[in-house]
Amino acid sequence: MLLCYRIFAAVLSFVHLMILQIVLVPNSARGGNIVFNTGEGFEEAKTAPQSVVHIRNQQRNGRKSLTTISGLQEDLDLKKILKYIRKMYSTNGTVKKDKEHGEVIQVQGDLRKEIASFLVEYKVCSKEEIKLHGF
User: Cross-referenced PROSITE patterns, in alphabetical order (predicted)?
Assistant: First the structure.
């Protein structure tokens, strides 16, 4: 049992390190915000216009549901963000193109609060930019 716990703790710390590699040194140390970008390294965010990130829950059938995230900045690498959301919350998801909203992240399950806290914690967007729907 102890060996199993140590392996689990090692895996969790590895996942946490992977996330920290892509995210951020504190704003004060860098002099600006760091965002997920489509290149190899980090980019400092220029004073981007405030956009609203919409997080919605869509009922499928029975108890099944989808969480959709739309309105993220276009320069963000949505596939990389989705990769870490899937690992952290043990779920599956995809990036879909929508005529009305552009590229949208779809995640299985009702993870509105968890995804909102993920986006704020890893400084993808601020808490004021997030709009939760369906409460």
Answer: SUI1
